[in-house]
Design a protein that fits this description.
Blueprint: E1 3-6, E2 17-20, E3 27-28, E4 42-48, H1 57-67, E5 68-79, H2 107-112, E6 123-133, E7 145-153, H3 156-162, E8 167-168, E9 171-172, H4 173-197, H5 207-227, H6 236-257
Parallel strand pairs: 1-2, 1-4, 2-3, 4-5
Antiparallel strand pairs: 5-7, 6-7, 8-9
Amino acid sequence: MNKIDIGGGHNPKEGFKSLDMCSGADIVCDIEKRWPMEDCSVGELHTQHTLEHVKDLIHVMNEMWRVMKWESYATIIVPHSDSAIAYGDPTHVRFMNAQSMKYFQGKYINKYKLDYGIRCAFAELVNETKVIDADIRAGETKPYFIEQRWVLCKSRKYFKANSPFNLENGEPKATVYSEMSDTMSKAYKLFSEKNKAYGNSYFESSDDLRYANLERKWARLKTFMDKKTEPDFESVEDTLMDMANYCMMEIVKRKQDR
C-alpha cells in the first residue's frame, strides 16, 4: 500500500492503488470517513479531479496527513475556479484556486488562530495554474479548462516550525477533550438504557459470564482488525463503545465486591 490514488476508482494512476467508494476500487472506502490505513503507512498520494466533489475537505486533508509517511509527497489536481468545466458537473460542491491549500500549511491558521480542526501543516512544493483548453465555448466567458496543481510534502522540519497552534503533542486540544466528553456521555446513556432493559443482570452475574461479554466483543474487534473491514451487523465504534462500558461496569462491580 505504498502509493494511493484518492478517488482513482476503476482507473487509478499507473503504479498506484485506488481508494474510492465505488465497487471497482482497490480499497473501497468513503474518503469522508476514516481510511482503512495505518498512520504513516503510505509513501505517496495522488488525487485528480476528486477534491472538488468533497464536502468535508478538512477531514480528507487530515486523513491524507495521517496516512502519509514523513517526507512523502501528495499531488493534488483540480479544475481551477476560472474554468468553465468547474461549474458544469452537478456533483461539484466547491470551487478551488491557487489559494485553496494555504489553510493546510499551518502559517495562515496560526496567524489568525483559526481553530477549524485542521491537524496538518503541509510544505507546499508546487503551486501551478495551467491553461489546458483556452477555448471559449458558446454562451461562456471562461476558458474551458484551467488546471490547478499542487505538490505537498509531509515534512518533519516544516511541521515542527508550523504545527497548528491548536495541537498539543500532536492532538487537537479543545477538539479532543470535547469529543471525549461527548463520547463518554453517549456511553453512559447507552449503559443506562441497556442496564434498565437487562434488569441490572451484569452486576448479578458470575465472573465467567461477565468476562464472556468482553471476550465476545474482543473477538468481534479482532475479526475487524484482521480483515480490515467492518462487520455488517455492528460498527467498530459500537463494538468499542460496548467494550468501554463493560470495562467500566467491571470496575464498579469490583468496587462493590470489596
